[in-house]
């Protein structure tokens, strides 16, 4: 039974956490690598760490970067930072040194919280960051050399508990950097109010009373994982979260079986990888719902998963960093195949034609525009880019989609990924879905190559199943059978793996770089 969740407004995330701990803390559980953590104990650790951060010099409004693989200390740190009146800057642990240097310099982070294995990477860039006051390290930093002070997490956590440093709900809570797939990553400013509104909307539409055991392999440093972690502040009943350090398909199946997991949160690439596991050999009978977000989900992958686990409902949602990860959700029991769901509570949605600025008709593809309390405050110190994205209170997402007569939203593709071949629009996802329909294809990604005759040519990269002998020309013919002459790829490149970003999305930037460098052989049809 879906539960109505009352929205708490006018509160910071720190105040919401206090209320949640009082409501469910003693019964809430977090399982991580075989260890059970009670919610009430996590709350006490958070209060002490907030005191330690303040004693170390963290001031209200400071940015504190958090670079860790998933572990209980990630959530503790976020809550402690908010309790101290500061803002968290989550950083994916797979980030390269040049990207890390940019994020830390641009955000002017005063402190970084990390684990010992990532300390050398941070230390290598710290000397170029004069604003950096210290690096807080979980675990033993051993004899690591660093140009700024190293502060043991355990020492800060032994401080006196700190009261909440009150901030305005509209103040900055998180500064998240976009993936930088089209250029230098830029900071997205999310307020306490925005993150809370997004998490409340997700909870109100997806929380089911008898589905309280959740498996989370998502990086908590990504906006999707961050939003899911904030959802716990709104749930009316205690729950159990099984947290993975990082996604491992065999580990996912093992944990789902062992903990009788009822709900899984994934990105589409994870769901595709799980299809390579012997799912039927495990007891996954408790699993009822798998929620996918972060990138478009192939219908073929969703259908294949349900065919093997018929009791599972695969739901899809849609959002972006600029909306704190939520725009549309598929309410439990009401998912519609191919759709990302209906606008989340509080979200106003319009499909706007770029040509004339008018609202598109039902079923007509145009740009998805949204407004609501979960919108970003803007791009960090980028008023020009903010003005382009936010116009008259509406965020122009850069995504193309349409709504049906019942209000369900379908996301077609990104505007920037659109290929125009001979004057005809080609959406990469249409081509990818056809290629994924071939029995030997594990993954596919499509980009455009500049072409003197047609303007752009459609190029596909394909990963085959192990042992497959299918050749590129056969895949071209398969696509030709299912797509119009303007859409099917004239080139197919067989690769060992489709490059992904650190959060599991297709890295089209890397694929375009491969084409520009001509490091892949061409197979024409």
Quick one: overall form? globular
CATH homologous superfamily assignment of the domain at 13-191: ANL, N-terminal domain
Helix content: 25-40%
Portion of residues in beta strands equals 15-25%
Alpha-beta classification: alpha/beta
The chain-level mean pLDDT equals: 91
Assigned CATH architecture of the domain at 13-191: 3-Layer(aba) Sandwich
Distance between the termini: 53 Å
**Which CATH class of the domain at 13-191?**
Alpha Beta
Sketch the major β-sheet.
Answer: 7 strands, mixed
Could you give the order of strands across the largest sheet? 2-1-11-10-12-13-14
Poorly predicted regions are: none
Number of strands: 27
Number of helices: 15
CATH-defined topology of the domain at 13-191: Rossmann fold
CA-based gyration radius? 23 Å
Q: How would you describe what is shown here?
A:
The longest helix is centred in the first third of the chain and has 18 residues, at 39-56. With 525 residues, the protein is an alpha/beta fold. The N and C termini lie far apart (53 Å). Among the domains are: 13-191, 3-Layer(aba) Sandwich (Rossmann fold); 418-517, 2-Layer Sandwich (GMP Synthetase, Chain A, domain 3). The protein contains 15 helices and 27 strands. Helix 1 (13-24) packs across helix 3 (72-83), helix 4 packs across helix 5 (119-126) and helix 7 (192-206) packs across helix 8. The protein is 29% helix and 24% strand.
